[in-house]
Write a structure and sequence with these properties.
alpha/beta; eight-stranded mixed sheet; 33% helix; 459 residues; 3 domains; Rossmann fold; single chain; two-stranded parallel sheet
Amino acid sequence: MDEIQHKFVEIRSLKLHIAEIGTGDKVVVFLHGFPEIWYSWRHQMIAVANAGYRAIAPDFRGYGLSEVPSEPEKTTFMDLINDLHAILDSFGIPKVFVVGKDFGGRPAYYFTLFHPERVSGVITLGVPYVPPGQSFSVQGHPPEGLYVLRWQKPGRAEADFARFDVKTVVKNIYILFSKSELPIAEENKEVMDLVEPSTPLPTWFTEEDLSVYASLYEKSGFRTPLQVPYRSLKENFSVNNVKVMAPALMIMGEKDYTLKFNGIKEYIISGKMKEYVPNLETVYVPEGSHFVQEQFPDKEQGRAEADFGRFDVKTVVKNIYILFSKSDIPIAEENKEIMDLVDPSTPLPTWFTEEDLSVYATLYEKSGFRTPLQMPYRALREPLGTTETKVMAPALLIVGEKDYGLKFQGFENYITSGKVKEYVPNLEIVFVAEGSHFVQEQFPEKVNQLIVNFLSNHI
């Protein structure tokens, strides 16, 4: 962290704080969210600098070490966009990659709209691109206690926060925003009341981190942060073309609470966002929260995680069901991934309904794929510590005749030759005609009868 340099630059009549590391013509600008500051990018700044880029992270006006405007309540998102433009001009930087987290995603994308010639690419974390004039936070009929609505009301958040010291306010917001549910206060409660005083910080956020944030919010206060983003969400922008044509990456934690805003998840997974950002790649981080860049700064995704992360959970489950329903082993080419084996237009197996898929997807959205990838795939060579390899209990093996598992080298012969019976002497084997790997779902009545008969015979 000591290698990160700090300077103050006069930008549009305010002294803005800029953190910087690295050199060269390839520049990455990091724009923070709330309750963050430049410090939230500490891990990523060092990483991109080590990769040969120059990293710049300003504190927005009224945040962190940057000067607070004389009238914070008049601050707008357009101010942040114009500040960024002026910073680049001040540094003599013609073109950049822009990275935005949380509400920082809005100036990141809108800067790209207003100044496409200055942007090489755009990355957002925790938020999708929402075109000017649209908003998900107020769609439908959200509860009155939703934190966004509460904090939009002048004085409501100020009175709530004032009951605590700054460090506790920042701590509470980090705890709330690290969860997978939207912070919603009851009618006669405030947002800060949602956090029990004994609740610990997230494991990846240290007391030292908290102290850094607290000391800077003690300096800046919350007047500007409450104005932008919360009280400026309905700001109007004069822009004709709302399409972002730059290469784009969106990184979402699978457990980011923002996915619970009305319409946001569907907007992302339906492909609607790609109508506005055609060159978009989306990556989901398993177990990731809203603060995914601090939670998993050094995360190197495994092969499957990276493959799955290109799609929403429902698509991953669908693809696996399609692949495993076939009679051949799924094998990807050298420069392809397993998910690439399924054409998006491929229908589900006839015996597997959209309703079935939704049930599975809902549960895997909750659990993620970390444990399923560990068990069975990454635990197959686990030593079990036993010398007894014979199973003497009565046993039944049900195999679909078209189960792709039979194509594993030596597998079918091991079964049909009787070799398996050397280890399971009391084994009965039944092959189900036309049966796939999911034979119990494909032919439930047939499998049901086989199981019930076996149970009856060995009661």
